[in-house]
Design a protein that fits this description.
Layout (H helix, E strand, L loop, with lengths): L2 H11 L4 H8 L3 H9 L6 H11 L2 H12 L16 H19 L13 H32 L3 H14 L5
Helix pairs in contact: 1-3, 1-5, 2-3, 6-7
């Protein structure tokens, strides 16, 4: 799917018509239509106002991926994914346990420079498991936002404030 298709789906999930979105972001309805059907590339400066207005949890994942390539959290949409919050909670628990199990195999006591190739691969596998756990947690946040009808943007904004207050972030 194209990024324009993801925008169209997110717009529809949030109950926006192209005209309503056009009115709120000050782009012509025809322009939005061309973005969505791929006739026109969405300029990078248009991403923020469109995404903020649509405020769709799934769309945030796709835009993040589009802008950051592989350094992003994917939206889980595989065959075995159930987006109900309780199912996502079980996935978080499973992925977190796997990550902690892999962390036990890292050679923490050795300097990195003396690790064998096998030990380095163990560390890399642990990182992948950590990313699985992190991704499942962010997907759970999206599921909860959808279920409780919270703005994912507002939840992330509040989280950033809490990170600053705890001095995790400047």
């Amino acid at each position: 799917m194209t990024i324009g298709t993801y925008f169209a789906e997110g717009r529809k999930r949030q109950g926006y018509s192209q005209q309503r979105l056009s009115n709120e972001v000050a782009y012509a309805r025809e322009t939005i239509s061309k973005y969505e059907n791929g006739e026109r590339t969405i300029p990078k400066e248009a991403y923020a106002p469109l995404v903020k207005t649509i405020d769709d949890p799934e769309l945030y994942f796709h835009v993040w991926s589009e802008k950051a390539d592989f350094v992003s959290i994917p939206y889980f949409d595989g065959d075995y994914i159930n987006h109900q919050s309780l199912s996502m909670l079980h996935l978080v628990k499973k992925e977190s346990e796997e990550a902690f199990d892999h962390l036990k195999h890292i050679s923490w006591e050795k300097p990195v420079e003396v690790l064998s190739d096998y030990e380095r691969e163990e560390a890399k596998q642990a990182m992948i498991e950590i990313l699985d756990a992190a991704a499942s947690m962010v997907n759970l946040v999206a599921a909860l936002c959808r279920e409780y009808r919270f703005s994912m943007k507002d939840v992330f904004r509040a989280w950033h404030v809490s990170l600053k207050s705890r001095r995790y972030k400047k």
